[in-house]
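Apologies for my clumsy wording, but could you write out the amino acids of a protein and the tokens describing how it folds?
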Amino acid sequence: MFLSGRLETSGEGVTHTVEQPDIDALVRRNRELEQLEQDHRRMELIFKQQAHKLQERMKEINCLYGISKIQEQTGLSLEEIFQQVVNIIPPSWQYPEITCAQLLINDQSFRTENYKNTFWKQQAEIIAYGEPIGILTVCYLEKQPDMDEGPFLAEERSLINAIAELLGRTSKRKKAEAELRESRRKLKEQNQQLKEKNIALREVMNQLREEKVDLESRVLANVENMLLPLVKKLEDRGSNLDKEYLQLLEENIVQLTSSFGTKISRLHQRLTPRENEICNMIRTGLSSKEIGKMLNLSYRSVETYRNHIRKKLGITNKKINLTSYLSGL
């Protein structure tokens, strides 16, 4: 105890000493205690504020985590994702019991059951491919004290912006997935159509081969049964010159069904019509003199044609008989 002095008293021959307290010291001590109490209350208030902020941040983290879990679910349509995201928004705001939310996106509306458009709201645009495709709205159903943005916290502004960004990315991803599925479906259909066309083409080709064989058979029959007998009759009635032409005609008719006609036609672009005609005569064994007589050409002209033909066939300066070469085609 703080003392200020001593007070002596006497009675019946006995002396007593009484100590008096130091009033100033007691006042100072009282003030110190009051200050400590104020500091304690202030620290307690700060602690509560920090705990409240931490609780709000935890709600925000849980909200974003919940959205990521929704996005991970397989089999959900884009509409189902949007509705589930809207439903988990209110518990993440400062006053969940009076919070409602609405998402307008792609000409569709998704909202909480208690949604009501009020004066106390926050909004954020949904952006995809650089263009706004919707808007997210969070409302309070009752007036609350003013904070950073009306009754809303600055962190709630950051949260609604983050949710809007996630919704934009989700919309893009789902659209890309839908386009990919559609492309795969069309590709599968095209592959099936291509297989069917290949089958049909093979059937047509088989039919064409059969028709070709049938046509060749009919041509052979007509040549043997109709054309050749007529040529024979003409040979019996004509002059010597006529017979030579008729023999050549007969041999050409026979060659219609041989490979020479096909092979010589491949050279048609390099040989002139006259050279083609002379090639055909040389192949039948006619001499230059005989060819000149039939075509009314001089022997020298026929020889010149023969040289041109050898050059175009690539057998110039080679010891290759032109008649044998043409007969081998």
